[in-house]
Amino acid sequence: ENKTITREQLFREYLKKQIDELSAQTSVKLEHVTILISGMASSSIGMQDIAYAKVPFAINGSGAIIKRFAATDNFLHEIVLISGVQSENDVMRGEETQLIGLLSLLKSSRGIPQEGVFIFPGTHSKHIYIQNGELIKFQTFMTGELFKVMSQHSILKDSVQVSDLNNFSDEDANAFKLGLHEAKRSNILNGLFTVRTNQLFEKLDKKQNTYYLSGLLIGSEISYFLNKNIPLLLCSGGNLHEYYKLAIEEYDLSESTTIIPNDLVDKAALEGQRLIFEKHVLKDLANESKEIFVGFI
User: What is the rounded CA–CA span in Å between residue 261 and residue 201?
Assistant: First the structure.
C-alpha cells in the first residue's frame, strides 16, 4: 500500500532521527525542546512555504516573520520556522537571521556600523545593504553555483581540475589574481571562454586554471564595488574567506572593508535565532507558564 507523506511529516521524521541521535551521543534527554529553524525550511521546497518579510527590514529581529508548529504525539517538540526577506526583485532565507545575529555580536565586541554592505559569500552570495538600523536592499550573486556548473557541467570541465582548493600555493594564488584582473577588463560571458584558451594555449595547468575560474567569478561579483566608496563588511566563514579577502586586497578595497572574524560569522545564525526567539516566542511561552528548552538549527 502506497502512503502519501506530507512535507511536514517528512521534516518531522528527519528531525526526530537527528534529535534521537544527538540525545544518544550526549546522554541528554531532549523531549519537549522547542526547535527553531531558519533558512530554506520555510521555502516552497522546505517544510512549509511561509511569506517573506519585506524591506525595509528591522535588523534587531523584530521584523522577522515566524510560524509555530505544535508538538504531536509522535514528535514531542514545538517547531518554529523563521521566514526570509523579500525585496522588489530578490529573496533570501537564512542570511537575514545571520545578519541579525552578527550585528548583535558586533554590538558587544566592536559596535554596530550605521551603514554599509555586508557580503555573505556562498553558493548564492548576498550583498546586504543596511542603513539606520534597517536592511534597505540586497542583491544575490550566483557565484558559487556558477562555479559548480562551469567546472562540472560545461565545456570548461575539461580545462580545470577541481580537488582540494583549501590550501593554495603561490602559483595558485597568482592564477586566482589573473582571473580577478580578467574580470575587471572583460564581460563575464567572454571571460569564461578564456578558461578554455588558458588550457588550449598551455598558459595554466588544470589546477591553476581552476583558481583562475574562481578568480574570474569572484572578481565579477566584487568588482561591482570598484570606485563606489561604500563601506564593506566581509562575513565569510570556512573555505571562501581567503578567496574573498584576496580579491578585496587585489582590488584595493581593503581601506573600505572590515573583515569580520570567522568565529563571529560561525556563531551568527545561532545568535540571530536566539534574538528572534526572544522577541517573538519567549513572551508567549512565559505567559503560557511553560518550561522552556530550545534548540537551534
Answer: 40
Model pLDDT for residues 26-69, shown as the tens digit of each residue: 999 998 899 999 999 999 999 999 999 999 999 999 999 999 99
| Beta carbons of 35 and 79 less than 8 angstroms apart | yes
The pTM score is 0.90
pLDDT digits (tens, 9 = 90+) for 102-125: 999 988 766 667 789 999 999 999
Distance CA 138, CA 130 (A): 9
Among 240, 190, 252, 196, CA closest to 215: 240
Q: Say how far apart CA 129 and CA 65 lie, in whole Å.
A: 20
- For 116, half-sphere exposure in the C-beta direction (CA atoms, 13 angstrom radius) is 17
Whole-angstrom Cα distance, residue 82 to residue 42? 7
Our CA dihedral for 122, 267, 95, 43, rounded to 10 degrees, sits at 100
